[in-house]
Amino acid sequence: MRMSVKEVPEEYLSGYAEILAEVGRTGRRLTRDEVEGRRALGEQAAESGHGLRALVIRHLAATRVAWPRTTSPESVLAAVEQAIDAFAGGYERAQRLAVRKEEAARREFIDDLLYGRSDPGRLAQRAERFGLRLAHAHAVAVAAGPEPYDDTHPVTRSVEAALLSRFGDRRILLTTKDGRLICVVPADQEEVVRYFAKQAHAATDGGRAAIGRPHPGAGGVVRSYEEALNALDLADRIGLDDPVLHAADLLVFPVLARDREAMADLVDSALGPLQQARGGAQPLLDTLHAYFDAGCVAAQAARTLRLSVRALTYRLERIHRLTGSDPTDPQHRYMLQTAAIGARLLDWPAKEL
């Protein structure tokens, strides 16, 4: 709690009256040692939590009381200005140092939290300081845009202001890491991460956000964070254009990619014959992607590819003739769709299997 003007300790005015008296007699300016002394007192006052306004008022009151009999009032006023300026400079220097220490502590905590590099018990204690209770489950959302962002970037401030305006002082941790926006929230506040993703998408001029699944404990934050990062990476690799990705909806992809040799064999066996088509496999593979992404609705897939329904149907028939599997037949569809997903993951046919 800030002290009133009357409660400001006299120690922060130590030697001040004597300086004014000496200046009143001689008209001199403050010596270097006197300036440094006032600056040191300012630092001490800041470290003790006193308000600068009360300290300045206290100096002015002391000036009135200690005003010397002098033939050079301008020299005394100059000394008052010099003394208060040095005192305030020391105060502000201490404040800046405290802010830098706080920022460094916060950054260290963020790094330890997202990489799981600290003792869980100690990490949980530090987390309380930043509004997190790691005994509970948390979800992490990550947003990436066309440029890197840090904690002072206007985009970060914009998203932070939107979250505070909407949700107030909840247990939300908003930060940045490796140029991305990071939002950590309790698992029961799903609306917060959804709103964060929406605001980040808008603020980053069309950037993409991914939301990891909720997990308990400090290790759960790391796991959710990694899931969100993997979702962003996966979206880039396979060309997903959704502005908001949910890791829970993409679990099939890492499962399929776990056995690369088996996946490559499936792609080669099921889709390899498409390379015999005029123009190569890519146009027909794009047709499969559009068809499956549209829920096997030919009209919607045709619009996506800017084809007529008749032209799309011809391509599907061509795929059937080349591969022996009919995309419109439910018995064949699963294999072709799994192989198409594998082709995306393996970047086939651009890369050899």
Automatic annotation (TrEMBL):
Q: Which Pfam families does UniProt cross-reference here?
A: GGDEF_2, HTH_30
Q: Which residues form the CdaR GGDEF-like domain?
A: 116-234
Q: What InterPro entries does the annotation carry?
A: CdaR-like_regulators, CdaR_GGDEF, PucR_C-HTH_dom, PucR_C-HTH_sf
Q: In terms of domain of life, where is this protein from?
A: Bacteria
Instruction: Show where the PucR C-terminal helix-turn-helix domain sits.
Output: 284-339
Q: Which family does it belong to?
A: Belongs to the CdaR family.
The protein in question is named Regulatory protein
Q: Which organism is it from?
A: Streptomyces pristinaespiralis (strain ATCC 25486 / DSM 40338 / CBS 914.69 / JCM 4507 / KCC S-0507 / NBRC 13074 / NRRL 2958 / 5647)
